[in-house]
Amino acid sequence: MDKKPYSLDLGGSPWGEDCAKLGHTPGFWTRNRAEVALYRAGLLALYGTPPEGIELRSRANRHDFGTYHTLEAVVDPAKDDGSHAHYIEKVETGFERWLHAGFSPPDPGHLKNATQAARFINEAIRGAINTTRPLPGGSFFPDEFETLNTNLRSAFPEIAEAAIA
Prior knowledge:
The chain is an alpha+beta fold. The protein has one domain. Helices cover 40% and strands 16% of the residues. It contains 5 helices and 3 strands. It has a 3-stranded antiparallel β-sheet with strand order 1-3-2. It starts with 5 loop residues before the first strand and ends with a helix. The mean pLDDT is 93.
């Protein structure tokens, strides 16, 4: 049987949060791209890096009012080692609030260009790593912070290196 790659649209932000609205939000393009990048980081924080054969990436969606982006999971079933279904189930469920993934609700409304957006995303990820860091004795509080911190450090090693040592 031929196993062809397929994709799933995961949305552009946590399902319980407001997001940038095409045709309504000033600076929509920059804000939308920043939200999608942070949503990806949030999914990585909660569920870890995808197994081989799954890629989380931004997807352009064309609309009468313009183009907006969402996060998509591109799945190659030929590379499934048995872990795809479990991981896809988790990322399809997503999460309700930014805080569940260790992030403050983003406010990228002041961003003017892609360079500022990239810096904003980097700083937001660094902030989440710092927020979820272990206590001086090495334990985490709350316990969920251990998963978030470990997964963020693994997914973003360059940013983690610049975070609190």
